[in-house]
Amino acid sequence: MIPSEPTSPHQGPVLAPDEAILAIDVGGTDTKSALLDSADQLQGVQRRPTVLRPGEAGDSVVENVVAILGEYRAAWPHKRVRAIGLIAPGLVDERKGVGIFSANLGWRDYPFTERLEAATGLPVTFGHDVGAAGDAEVRIGAARGLADVVVMIIGTGVAGAVFCGGQRILGGGYAGEIGHAEVPGGEPCRCGAHGCLETVGAAGAIARRYAERSGRAVNGAREVLQLQAAGDAQAQAVVDDAVNALAFSICQLAATLGTEAVVIGGGLAQAGEQLFAPLRAAVDERLSFHRRPRLLAASMGQDAGLIGAGLQAQDLLGARP
Amino acid sequence: MIPSEPTSPHQGPVLAPDEAILAIDVGGTDTKSALLDSADQLQGVQRRPTVLRPGEAGDSVVENVVAILGEYRAAWPHKRVRAIGLIAPGLVDERKGVGIFSANLGWRDYPFTERLEAATGLPVTFGHDVGAAGDAEVRIGAARGLADVVVMIIGTGVAGAVFCGGQRILGGGYAGEIGHAEVPGGEPCRCGAHGCLETVGAAGAIARRYAERSGRAVNGAREVLQLQAAGDAQAQAVVDDAVNALAFSICQLAATLGTEAVVIGGGLAQAGEQLFAPLRAAVDERLSFHRRPRLLAASMGQDAGLIGAGLQAQDLLGARP
């Protein structure tokens, strides 16, 4: 439940020094959790395997969150947990607090906010994991102070969060699927469509396409980038394809939305200027009168989603004084 | 100056029955004007050539508007003009009421709202012409009641207005340039970029590309569509290219923004199902798990921009009670 006002870094202290938000990120493999304190810092970050009963995935998540809440209360007796910020992958209706669909985790139309509020008696937000990471980057990270921003997380796939006028675009839970927008030269995608950006532009695609082309197994995109730096022509071609695909998608955003900055995170962003320099050049070459987005490296790290989950719950507290 | 609240069809009567908004649409060739009354109806629609002094384009527009206001006051003595809604093409900063740039009309960073309010003593809004036409379609036209909508006007070029969560996306004046986003198979564009949608998908492109391919001059896209219907293979190929380019762009919007409806207006929309049926099929084929946008024909007609201009000024009156 995100307030519909344009969001800015939250105003004034919502939490007292002895209060915290419990932030929980339910992933396909692991569930991460932490307390977010009044200074927007995470404390007690933990990771445990996500274990859900088949056919009862939503109820299992609620039970796990109740157990995790108990653990934090026991371990941090002097911190009062004021609210819970839960995030998850898949199609999420943040306004209603409903998990529309998650193929990996196995729920459909599950009312997380309602069930968790009933189970804990605390205010709860339920948000999208990548959207929450985007919130953190826009509100207190790389794009702080900017209004028209796209956050792209480039790893196994490409996930996105789109901000216009300071507001994240929700699209009924369907917005931000930049990795599943078509690019020229794209390949058949596991999603069922053809030519999706992530079939060429993701770190996973760089590793897979290099292995296919060279007949040589590699240990991820990082190794392909090392081969490219050493002059390997096949690695160069595969990285060029990724850069062109990413530039194509970024220019679509610039033309359609007037995006002023693109924040790039995830594994591929660790390539630094080896990625950013050619990507800037490719974007620059494609645009004419359009607004030219700055390309920025994500600054919030791997726990951006947890921080964003905490910020969402803080907003809710701020809106329900 | 658009209020930042999510807009819905405006609430309650802002205008009394004896009051009106003066709506003015300054185009590259003609200036249209009308009174918008309390029932959102246009009265006294007029069209005159746009005449601007070279080098003083902005000031000329202000003088012309003052003259037009005088004419309407004389012709409609029993209607009190409460506000002026002015719209124009080019890059427009609606929040500041500034014309950032218009290549055709010749201004740069001209403060229309400020100057017109000083010259007339009335509240003034200054908006983008296509954005205003989009406002009309979303608020009282084809997309009434929908929140995530793109309005595409397909004529000589392709212009757009993008709505997310009921709000038009502004992007500092740069949003909505769907016609200048790249598509596969696109050609060099007069904007300086390559492959823009409007080089293949616009009515103008259909006529030009058929003439180039067949060596036969045609009287606009309408004639190419007639030739297609009669079995002309070259016409079929050119229309197929346009449909595929438009479908590509619509699917970008669906993936990125979760667009639920695309309203198509402009000359090409008059082709009706000859355009809409293959376009629906092409969009449907490209998408997988994405939200599938409905394709709707624009319903507000050629004066949609004037109506939208009037609605913008009504909003301003509603926000300054």
In short:
Two copies of one chain form a homodimer. Chain A has 321 residues and is of the alpha/beta class.
Descriptive keywords:
Nucleotidyltransferase, domain 5; 321 residues; 2 domains; kinase (chains A, B); 8 helices; Glucokinase (chains A, B); five-stranded mixed beta sheet; transferase (chains A, B); alpha/beta; EC 2.7.1.2 (chains A, B); homodimer
Q: Given the helix and strand composition of chain A, which structural class is it? A: alpha/beta
| Strand content range of chain A | 15-25%
Distance between the termini of chain A: 15 Å
Count of domains of chain A: 2
Q: Quick one: which chains have the greatest interface? A: A-B, 45 and 46 residues
Largest sheet of chain A: 5 strands, mixed
Q: Which assembly state applies to the chains in this document?
A: homodimer
Question: From N to C, what is the helix and strand string of chain A?
Answer: EEEHEEEEHEHEEEHHHEHEH
CATH homology group of the largest domain in chain A: ATPase, nucleotide binding domain
In DSSP terms, counting alpha (H) and pi (I) runs of 4 or more, how many helices of chain A? 8
State the CATH class of the largest domain in chain A: Alpha Beta
